[in-house]
Structures are given as structure tokens and as C-alpha cells.
């Protein structure tokens, strides 16, 4: 990997760390600026990769990364405008959902074997099981339930397909992407439990944000291969 990309990754993690610190200190406007800046880094890495390796796969991933950045900004903007917090949060979830749809559109042409349907089924069943547990044990508003079904369904199906591709056609790109997808999904699970379980822990927030950012960085880096 080129030194310039390594420098961008280090800068991105530095911005992400500063964002976490600012958010913890409740400096929400500064935190959102830092978060948007950190997210811009993985978009720029994706853009550089797309310019280097101009595949349709990379174009769709780049669009997905852009919507991820938009989602990042919106999810943290809800703290800046708390009265509109729920609406902003839900719009942010929609942005992430669009991003995952783009990831799926990029992955599906890579998975032309019959096992893709087993991956889809496995992802859907895993999402359904998690959602059933969440709805049974946690208090979740109706709007979040509706959005959660579509969002988690897309996340787990995308990740299951990515894992299937990495297993059956283990290229460097497929493996790096699959690891990124797994980390992204793990971050969402941590976020859900930290948000809706009734007990919010800063340590879980750090874990959620770190897993997420590393996942997005790996997805962007996979575009170079």
C-alpha cells in the first residue's frame, strides 16, 4: 500500500479518536465536525482506489462509503439539534441503509454460485433472531423497529454474502472486504445494545466507533485489490 494511503489511515484514526473525546466531553458541534472529517478520510481512500482500479465494483463501494459519511454526520448531528434528534437519527439510518444496498449491489455480481442463497438465508435468519431478541428484551420505539428490520436485514445479508465470497473465492480483496463487513456488523450490534439496553457505557461507545471505523477503512482499502 502506498505511503500516502497509510498516512491518510493514521490521520483518519487520529480524527476518530479526537471525535470520541469531544463527544464524551459533550462538545457536540466540534464532535460532528471531527466525525465528518474522519469519515471523509475513508471516502477519499475509496476515491483514490476508484481512480486506481476503475471497476463497477469500486464505483458502487465508493457511493456506499459516501452514504456512510452522510450517515455518520447525521447520527451525530442529532446531539447538536436534540429537538429534531429522532428524525435526524432515522434519516441517518436511511443513509446507512442506502450505503449497504450499494455494498450489496457491488457484491452480488461477485457471487454467482448457488451458495449465495444460503448466505442470504443465513444473514436473514441471523438478523431476524437478533431483532426478535431486541424487541423482546428492550424498549424500542415503533419507528426504530420498522427501520431496524430493513437496516439490520441488509447489514447481515451483506455480511453473510461477503463471508461466502471470501470462503469460496478467497482473493485478497474478498478477504479484506469480508473482515471489514464483519467489523461493521459487530459495531452495529454493540451500538444497539449500548443504545437500547437501558445502560449506556462509554467503553462500549468506544468499541462501537472503533469497530465501525476500522470496518469502513478496510472496505475502502479492499478497493485497491
Describe the structure.
The protein is mostly helical and 225 residues long. It has helices at residues 3-24, 28-52, 56-80, 85-107, 115-137, 142-168, 172-196, 202-222. The longest helix has 27 residues, at 142-168. The chain is globular.
Whole-number mean pLDDT: 90
Spell the H/E element sequence. Answer: HHHHHHHH
Rg over CA atoms, rounded to whole Å, is 17 Å
Write down the overall geometry.
Answer: globular
Count of DSSP strands: 0
Q: How large is the share of residues in beta strands? A: under 5%
Which oligomerization state do the chains in this entry correspond to?
single chain
Task: Work out the count of structural domains.
Answer: 1
Describe the largest sheet. none
Intertermini distance:
10 Å
- Number of distinct helices: 8
What is the percent of helical residues? over 70%
Write the layout of secondary structure elements.
Blueprint lengths: L2 H22 L3 H25 L3 H25 L4 H23 L7 H23 L4 H27 L3 H25 L5 H21 L3
List keywords for this structure.
225 residues; 85% helix; 0% strand; mainly alpha; globular
Please summarize what this structure is.
This protein has 225 residues and is an all-alpha fold. The protein is 85% helix and 0% strand. The chain has one domain (3-222).
